[in-house]
Amino acid sequence: MVRPAGSYHAPMSTKVLFGFHAVTVRLKTAPESVVEIHVDATRRDARMRQFVERAQAAGAKLVDSDDQRLIRLAGSPRHQGVVARVTPLATVHSLDDVLDAVTGAPLVLVLDGVTDPHNLGACLRVADGAGAHAVVAPKDHAVGLNATVAKVASGAAETVPYLMVSYLARWVYVL
Predict the structure, then answer these.
(1) DSSP 101
(2) What's the whole-number mean pLDDT along residues 158-173?
(3) What pLDDT is attached to residue 175?
(4) In terms of CATH architecture, what is 16-86?
(5) Nearest-angstrom CA–CA distance, 137 and 163
(6) How many C-beta atoms lie closer than 10 Å to residue 49's C-beta?
(7) What is the CATH number of domain 8-12+91-174?
(8) Long-range pairs, 70-74, Cβ under 8 A, ≥24
(9) pLDDT, tens digit, 9 for 90 and up, residues 116-155
(10) Phi and psi (nearest 5°) for 148?
(11) What is the C-alpha separation between 13 and 22, in angstroms, rounded?
(12) Where are the beta strands (DSSP E) in 34-133?
């Protein structure tokens, strides 16, 4: 399949993940990339205890933190008591790379005009649930991956490639 020439932009992975699902998925898929996990020192419920056990089993460094520190690290008060500092994962650099690895018919979600990180996170979550091989958006006028997207995506930002391309209309025509 011939695809139009153009520049590809794969956004940088987040350096901070927060929320139980986002951090748990990173622990499962790339535990070596987790630098440290800050947890709410005052939270001792069953969900937190189970999370801490999983993190310890994965060999993650745990740091007890207060709410203000978690808010500062996450950039949001919606951290659920869990904030991880992570190293970026290797990113897919082109849709060609994704599609070449697909056997059978590819499923690609194409987005245009999605500028709200909550909406992108929801789209990634749906794409993951539907078995999409990638999500594609225009390089301009679209939100990139960030910690809010990763939290709302509940781990899907770690498993579904999100590619930002120039000239989205050409890509849709070719697909």
Answers:
(1) T
(2) 84
(3) 60
(4) 2-Layer Sandwich (3.30)
(5) 6
(6) 11
(7) 3.40.1280.10
(8) 70/18, 70/38, 70/40, 73/16, 73/18, 73/38, 74/16, 74/18, 74/147
(9) 999 999 999 999 999 999 999 998 889 998 888 988 998 8
(10) -65, -45
(11) 13
(12) 34-40, 62-65, 82-86, 108-110
The radius of gyration computed from the CA coordinates of the chain, to the nearest angstrom, equals 17
Taking 3-state DSSP, the helix, strand and coil percentages for the chain, each rounded to the nearest 5, stand at 40, 20, 40
**Does position 9 have pLDDT exceeding 50, yes or no?**
no
| Interatomic CA distance for residues 120 and 109, integer angstroms | 11
Alpha-carbon distance 72 to 166, whole Å? 34
Q: What is the pLDDT of residues 99-110, one digit of tens each?
A: 888 888 999 999
Interacting residues of 139 by C-beta distance below 8 A, sequence separation 6+: 7, 9, 164, 165, 166
Determine the angle formed by the axes of helices 46-57 and 20-29, rounding to 10 degrees: 20
Domain assignments of the chain as residue spans, ordered by start? 8-12+91-174, 16-86
Note the Cα 43 to chain centre separation in Å: 25
What residues have CB less than 8 Å from 125, skipping those under 6 apart? 152, 153, 154, 156
What is the Cα–Cα distance from 26 to 16, expressed in whole angstroms?
11
Indicate the pLDDT class of residue 7, thresholds 50, 70 and 90: very low
